[in-house]
Design goal:
Main location: nucleus
Order of helices and strands: HHHHHHHHHHEEHEEEHHHH
Number of domains: 2
Strand order of the largest sheet: 3-4-5
GO biological process, one term: maintenance of shoot apical meristem identity
Structural class: mainly alpha
Shape: elongated
Subcellular location: Nucleus
Number of helices: 15
Keywords: Metal-binding, Nucleus, Zinc, Zinc-finger
Number of strands: 5
InterPro entries: OBE1-like_PHD (IPR047578), OBERON (IPR004082), Oberon-like_PHD (IPR032881), Znf_PHD (IPR001965)
């Protein structure tokens, strides 16, 4: 039985992309600081930031008329050093204490906190940013007090920052992506998929396998069984799916982890050995030659030049260690086509050649 490529991977993952593309371009939810009431003792000018040109002109005319030489004074609202909080404060201090402090901070300061973490997650700051993020993540991961019960009292921005630190995903800080408070908490405590384009409740499909039951945030609908990461690659040999339990694995991870290797025929369990994929979730095997054939027959005609070369390289690496005649022939054919394409062979010709090769094998 070949790995059923055409069902889970070619249908399920594109649906995630459609969901992601259709997320509303909504404004970032305003923080609870909007609900702070102005003190009756505060003057109106204490709410100003920068004066408008009209206000400045009116003030100047008033001063000229009164022949007052005193300079104009505008009160600008600032955050004192005592009131400020840092990302380390959010990562390490008690939830309700930080939440109360954040209620008194202006939105622009909270945005600066989120932007600072976004820059850190982008990795453009080099080793210093990486080290600081690891410190933040260690602070968060070693706290036993961050539970559903305590996080429900968190400030909205505080919760977004905690989730971004915990998952390492900056999308939770993006202004156009708005998840409910409940969803953010569920992501944090591994009850909801951290892939924003998936967002399934965990364990997905109520799976009871050891990996899904570990409550580590793994989602069998979109994540690799080995590295626990997700991406949006579809119609590709980059992912290999188990045709028995429908869990997914990056091909590179499977090769590196020894999950792709020679073994007895998956069809009969005996006879000549062939290249097999062993699923870590269920420990059962699936043959790879038929799977690769299905992928190319369904998808190769739509691949552009770079994609075709990349897929041929995947297949070459899968069958590099093959000891059966058909697997060795496929390996050499992929190597040959890659070299010819580097020399200028048209992708349409290369596609036709590899499809004819598969037809001749069966």
């Amino acid at each position: 039985m070949s790995v059923a490529f055409s069902l889970p991977l070619s249908i399920r993952l594109p649906s995630f992309l459609q969901i992601f593309a259709c997320l509303p371009d909504a404004q970032e939810p305003r923080s609870n600081s909007d609900n702070i009431r102005e003190s009756p003792t505060e003057s109106a000018s204490s709410q100003e930031t920068w004066p408008t040109a009209a206000a400045m002109m009116a003030k100047k005319m008033e001063n000229d008329k009164a022949d007052n030489d005193c300079p104009e004074q505008f009160i600008i609202r600032r955050v004192s050093g005592v009131d400020k909080i840092s990302l380390r404060d959010i990562a390490g201090e008690q939830v309700d204490i930080i939440s109360e402090k954040m209620l008194c901070l202006p939105d622009d300061f909270l945005d600066e906190l989120k932007n600072g973490l976004r820059v850190m997650l982008e990795g453009s700051g080099g080793s210093q940013h990486r080290e600081e993020f690891l410190i933040l993540q260690k602070l968060v991961n070693t706290r036993p007090d961050l539970t559903e019960k305590t996080l429900i009292r968190a400030h909205r921005v505080q919760l977004e920052i905690l989730v971004a630190i915990n998952t390492g995903i900056q999308a939770f800080l993006h202004p156009s992506i708005s998840l409910s408070q409940t969803s953010l908490i569920e992501v944090f405590v591994f009850k909801r998929c951290r892939n924003i384009a998936c967002q399934n409740q965990l364990p997905a499909d109520d799976c009871t396998c050891e990996i899904c039951a570990s409550k580590s945030g793994f989602c069998n609908l979109c994540m690799c069984v080995i590295c626990n990461k997700f991406d949006f690659e579809v119609n590709t040999c980059r992912w290999v799916g188990c045709d028995l339990c429908s869990h997914w694995t990056h091909t590179d991870c499977a090769i590196r982890d020894g999950q792709i290797c020679m073994g007895p025929s998956a069809k009969s369990g005996a006879g000549p050995t062939e290249m097999l994929f062993r699923c870590r979730a269920c420990n059962r095997t699936s043959e790879l030659l038929g799977w690769v054939k299905d992928v190319f027959q369904h998808c190769a005609p739509a691949w552009e030049r770079e994609a075709l070369m990349r897929e041929l390289d995947f297949v070459s690496r899968i069958f590099r260690g093959s000891e059966d005649p058909r697997g060795r022939k496929l390996f050499w054919k992929c190597e040959e086509l890659i070299e010819k394409m580097k020399g200028g062979l048209e992708e349409s010709t290369a596609c036709r050649v590899i499809l004819m090769f598969f037809q001749g094998m069966y």
